[in-house]
Design a protein that fits this description.
alpha/beta; 7-stranded mixed beta sheet; 7 strands; binds adenosine-5'-triphosphate
Length: 273
Amino acid sequence: MEKKCTTIAIVNQKGGVGKTTSTYNLGWELGKLGKKVLLVDLDSQGNLTMQSGVQRPDELRMTISTLMTKSIYDEELPAKEEVILHKELVDLLPSNIELSNVEIQLVNATMREFVLKGILDEYKTDYDYVLIDCMPSLLMLPINALAAADLVVIPVAPEFWAVKGIEALFNTIKTVKKKHINRKLVIGGILITKYTPKLKSTKEMENIIMDVFGERIHVYDSKIPSLSKVADAGKLSLSVRELHDKFTIKREKESIIKAVEAYESLAKELVEN
Ligand SMILES: Nc1ncnc2c1ncn2[C@@H]1O[C@H](COP(=O)(O)OP(=O)(O)OP(=O)(O)O)[C@@H](O)[C@H]1O
């Protein structure tokens, strides 16, 4: 029997808020909980692909762009094994710079909002979770992610312009629902990333986010701490848990454990809801 799969779009049109980092580490922690996870890199920067250990994404023969182009031109999709890469706890549909051409191809494609959905309907059958890492825009590719998703998770770094950005994203989600692109789409919640509660400015932004959105939207209890070791793990193509496990000295382990715990508890929040 086909598995019930939950597809989650990790979206924020603001850059650098922790979308890729959260997609990878949330995926890893869901994998740790025994879930079968497919990560989808829907960003032409290919950061999720590099985070997953592919050093030169531009040399990949098959990527999500191959699938989307084939789908736009009504060609048969390649077998999953030809495209999907495997890591210990997650699988990956990789991406590279070619995805920027797809954004252009989509403009004139028929059923252009549903190209990714069509592909995932075919590719997601073995998975419990599909996590889509979106590029920082609200153009056709992120709209494709919203059309394919059951749930949206919005990583937000508590910075000055954050609230304005979330408002714009909500309007896009409203339009996606109103125009029947995806009427069942649910906003899972706001995930606060790069969190430093000791900083007055962070606390102020957290309060503003709660005041403005708290009544309408769930804000995940798990908050991802701002830690230089989180960025280090990314550069080493490791999850925060893997980097933690590699450390042998207690002080080193302590420098990243809070991020491991945060992504673990976020994964549990998602599984339990
Ligand atoms: N919790 C964190 N603590 C410290 N650094 C972080 C944290 N999360 C992410 N970073 C760093 O911030 C930078 C941006 O993160 P990331 O690439 O995940 O953001 P993004 O929203 O996906 O960016 P883009 O919009 O460009 O795709 C990276 O260098 C990453 O290592």
